[in-house]
Specification:
By secondary structure, the chain is an alpha/beta fold. Helices cover 43% and strands 15% of the residues. It is built from 14 helices and eleven strands.
């Protein structure tokens, strides 16, 4: 994992504890994670923090929202991930005229058979890229609600199961508002993480330019070595077995409750947010090679899990606060269990 300010997990603050599960299997998961990240870095230069958050989200069976200005390789990152995981991939370009049927599908009448046939939409894939998701109106965005939560869609009264695994990875431009629509809270709450994709460091950008100057911008997506079939599901099963002590569970509860009491917020964390934070912390622990969750796993992932779910009061915005700053205030008011 990356060190310094970019570190998701603080090893020094995580003292060894008695093992509570299959240590060998956890170490295998850690190795699979490192291999996956290494293959992605053959195509993606830098963006260490985003990749860590994205892979943690995937291992915890969640969806992710990637927010960043154009040109930061958000789409390339998602396509590379699907290729490395050997999963089917569909891209949906969200536009103001996109209809719900363009996402989930519809039924069509066939004259030759005098019957209706179900035509499934692009949402029927393992990895669905919802590109510029905020460009579609609420009616179309709502087509994803059932899919993201229940992993199914309903067409003409029939419930159709989506492929397993099923991941929605959405992108959003934070600075362009013309022709866009705000994402409803119900949809935002279904994303485990909101990952902020920032500009690359000077060294990373220099490496990108040097590669392009030599006519070798990066490895092609098709050149990455894919995961062995079933590896992702094995990793996810190991994450489920990670031990969570009562004190850590209580810490998650207190974070959610404190956000709801925050004087800076109109809306705090939902119970679903607490569930997502717990699952992400379990995945983070497994990725670090541990079969138990520490308070630092929870604390380090609280901001990417909560930042998109919090609604700030006008007074807080006037004060110059954003969701990340409010998350820090919430965490600062709570004692970390030992």
């Amino acid at each position: 994992m990356a060190k310094g300010d970019q570190t998701i997990f603080d090893d020094a603050a995580n003292p060894p504890q008695p093992a509570g599960g299959d240590v060998e299997a956890i170490q295998k998961l850690k190795g699979a994670y490192e291999n996956l990240k290494r293959e992605m870095h053959r195509v993606i230069v830098g963006q260490e923090r985003v990749l860590e958050e994205l892979l943690t989200c995937i291992f915890s069976r969640g969806h992710a929202l990637l927010v960043g200005v154009p040109g930061l390789a958000k789409t390339l990152m998602i396509r590379t991930l699907s290729q490395t995981l050997s999963l089917s991939f569909n891209r949906i370009q969200f536009t103001p005229d996109l209809m719900p049927s363009d996402v989930v599908g519809t039924t069509v009448y066939e004259i030759s058979t005098s019957s209706f046939r179900t035509r499934t939409g692009p949402v029927f894939a393992n990895v669905v890229l919802a590109d510029e998701i905020n460009r579609a109106p609420a009616k179309t965005q709502s087509a994803l609600l059932e899919a993201m939560e229940e992993r199914q869609v309903t067409l003409e009264g029939d419930s159709l199961a989506l492929p397993d695994p099923f991941l929605v990875l959405a992108t959003q431009n934070p600075v362009e508002y013309e022709g866009t629509y705000p994402l409803p809270e119900a949809e935002l709450d279904r994303f485990v993480f909101k990952a902020i994709v920032r500009y690359p460091s000077a060294d990373d950008e220099r490496a990108i330019l040097r590669a392009h100057d030599k006519g070798q911008p990066s490895a092609r997506i098709g050149d990455v070595e894919p995961f062995a079939h079933g590896t992702l599901e094995e990793c996810r099963a190991e994450v489920e077995d990670v031990t969570v002590e009562d004190s850590v569970l209580d810490y998650v509860v207190r974070i959610a409750a404190e956000s709801r009491r925050s004087p800076d917020l109109i809306l705090g964390a939902s119970p679903r947010a607490a569930v997502h934070l717990l699952r992400a912390a379990k995945a983070a622990a497994a990725i670090e090679g541990r079969d138990f969750v520490t308070p630092d796993d929870v604390k380090s992932l609280a901001t990417p899990t909560l930042r998109h779910r919090l609604v700030l009061k006008a007074e807080a915005e006037i004060e110059g606060l954003d969701a990340d700053a409010v998350c820090k205030r919430v965490l600062a008011r709570l004692d970390v269990p030992r």
